[in-house]
Design a protein that fits this description.
single chain, 120 residues, mainly beta, 2 domains, 4-stranded antiparallel beta sheet, 3-stranded antiparallel beta sheet, 2 helices, 10 strands
Length: 120
């Protein structure tokens, strides 16, 4: 598998003394990631380096796999989106999946709200 990654350092390339490439290409076979890594966020590839056998690549930086451009769609198929009415009639969008979120103002401050409890 050949994975081309957008280099996150490229956005600030003027801060480096050396030339920073826009893309980096890695080759290897896909392997199961460690249990501490979220497979929705990380792709793991083998390397040919003895002391560095597996490379973890954040999916948000992947540009293409085997020449095909990647669309950033979450792998988690269990994402559920619901519209929940607030106490004063407003409608909020609640997303349930590996990460829960709500569009209400309370969630932005507390990272939890009663709308998520209603949707569960």
């Amino acid at each position: 598998m050949k994975v081309t990654v957008r280099n996150p350092q490229y956005a600030v390339k003027d801060r480096y003394f050396f030339e920073v490439p826009e893309f980096i290409t890695y080759e290897g076979d896909e392997v199961k990631c460690g249990k501490w890594e979220d497979p929705n966020e990380v792709l793991c590839l083998t390397t040919d380096i003895d002391f560095f056998p597996v490379r973890s690549i954040q999916r948000k930086w992947i540009y293409s796999i085997d020449g095909a451009t990647v669309l950033h769609v979450p792998i988690d198929k269990k994402i559920i989106t619901q519209i929940v009415k607030g106490s004063k009639g407003q409608e909020y969008v609640v997303t349930l999946g590996t990460k829960k979120s709500c569009t209400c103002p309370g969630f932005t401050f507390r990272h939890s709200c009663k709308h998520i409890m209603e949707a569960v």
